[in-house]
Amino acid sequence: MLDEELQELKTNGNVKTKTSTKIKKSMRKSKRISVDPTGFHVSEVDHHSKEDDDPEEVNHRIDAAWMAPRDHSVFEFRDISYIVGKRKKQKQILTNVSGRVSDGSTVAILGPSGAGKTSLLKALSLGITSGEVMGSIELNGKKLTSQGFKDHCFLVEQSDHHWSFLSCQETLMYAASLLLGPGNHSAVVENVIDKMGLQSCKDTKVGNDFVQGLSGGQKRRLSIAIALLKKPAVIMLDEPTSGLDSAASVAIVSELRKLAKSENLIVIMTIHQPSTKVYNDFDQVMLMSKGRQAYMGKAASAHEYFETIGYPMMQMTNPADFLVDLVNADFTSEDSVIAILDEWKRHLAYKTKRCKGRKVEVDSNDDFHQLMRRKKSFLHQLSTVFRRHGLLVARDPILYVGRIVVLLISNTVFSLAYWSSRDKVQEQSINFYYANAWPISLGSMFAVVAVFVLNSEFKSIMREVRNGMINPVTYIMAKTILVLPVMLLFGAAALSTGVYAILGLKANYGVYMVMYAISVFVFECIAEVLSVAFINPLMGMLCFLSIWFTSFLFGGTFLPPDDLSVVIRWLYHAMPLSYTFNAISYHVFAGEEWPSCIPDANAGAVCVDFNEFPREEPITLILESLSKIVPNVSGDDNRMDAMAIILGMALGYKFLYVAIFLFRTSQSTKLRGVCEDTFINRDDVQST
Ligand SMILES: Nc1ncnc2c1ncn2[C@@H]1O[C@H](COP(=O)(O)OP(=O)(O)OP(=O)(O)O)[C@@H](O)[C@H]1O
User: Where is there biased composition of kind Basic and acidic residues (predicted)?
Assistant: First the structure.
């Protein structure tokens, strides 16, 4: 309803309901703002009026500002060059690529495979973090910085990293909450659902490779819908039609064109080889080959330009095929491609020497962004991310729920395997020890799954951070708070049925749960580090398994630390499981009635001579006797110390995780400004 009112208001502005009156008032307020034509500068904003303090009023102003068309903008990049490698192995990926796009335009970057399309888009979205990038990128005449990109631009990547277990509508509601601040944004969300044709699948889960969900085209539409929620000046899309059939490709590109016109957007996309229908929807095209430009200008005039330089297009030809084939060295001679690239350089107008890299950031003082900045607080973001990931923790079976179920089943089976240790006799003490060591070993090893899942989550978070949706700290905090009780649930699943119900353990349940949770938590923290340290999750998983097995082997269950070579003896002290096994073995034998060992009456090596261990306490005795077989067991109560050391290790790993996480999410392209002669498009010279 509100949506319809807003639409009507936007077109004729005479809806007479209470809600629309508020929005109207808000829009009038928005109009009080005068916009500097060179940027998004606001000259007159009443920052502290009484109405601004009313959350409902601010909410309506945001909705109204969101509905209003965006300010005019110009995106310009000059002499973008990109070099990778060092010295003799240097490779020039991009060479002096320039362009200028105004709002309302859709630009397609075309070219054969390896032409440099993706590299250019990455450079324009400040996403290149290695090698050297030169040139200048400006939005409304001001240098585009990472913050400027977060405020005014949005990159839709080729692979859609969404939250698989959220529905389309839930995804958009959380995105709206993150982008627009607190309040009910269902009207705005409905608006983008309608615009992107997602009405029929709004309750469908996004899905992934393992869970059926949205189709490829719907996922792409969802990515664009999220971008629209932000109301950016520029949307960049990497291959938005890849993997889609021709009808879906036409629909997406024509929708983007309409959006560019209606929302004053600049749309820049890379595209491989579009059909004629898709090509006709582009306002401008940039043709690339060998990292250089062969053409940049009106899509409809491209064939005229090539005709003037001696390459007429045959009738009934797909213009995109014609252009791409012209500069594809696989179909044309290398010399001919170079001649076309050189010809374009000659065609460009010469502009005087100019130093780029001015340190002026894009303003984000337009009304919409002013309001949003005031509304979006760290706490609000934290609570949104907390609610979203709480839902995902409950729904995603791979991350935690699956582990809880497997721990429950496997440890029930283990306890049945050690059924005889219920007798609590000396010769069963070793079995009872193992019955308690396996649940913790298994629980800590299962954290390998977290490496895989968190690696994939990190990609989604990276997308959100780069597009200015969230502060990475909110994700880290929310996840840490959510994971702590889950560790206790792991303990409950691993121990309740197995060692407590089946084997009749009497040791304090609460203390055991906490010890279990801490011991598994440290491995969860190791998994977090490895999930962000490697781009490929399989590398992280391999590393995790190596660390876990080292911890298991050098945990003192099998090898006495004193027998180890001095070169690797430190591993016994550096790995968490040695502390865990020591503390847990004391805990499970403490408080139990273990009959004293009678010398000579027992077969096997378990029984000890009283004279060797003159102490009276039965717990100490059983532990001392057990230590003959399990080197790490001792009669001393080290539980507090052990847990403190493990928590310290967990904290260390957490620190490392946060450092890598923040480092990777903060990386962006460092553009090195150049002071060289600049060549720009003749058309642009005329239009400026
Ligand atoms: N970091 C890098 N190190 C070495 N070579 C690179 C690097 N990045 C890109 N390249 C090379 O630069 C060229 C352009 O790559 P890019 O992915 O930009 O091309 P593209 O036009 O998007 O190709 P496609 O359409 O096949 O995706 C390719 O030859 C690629 O191998």
Answer: 43-57
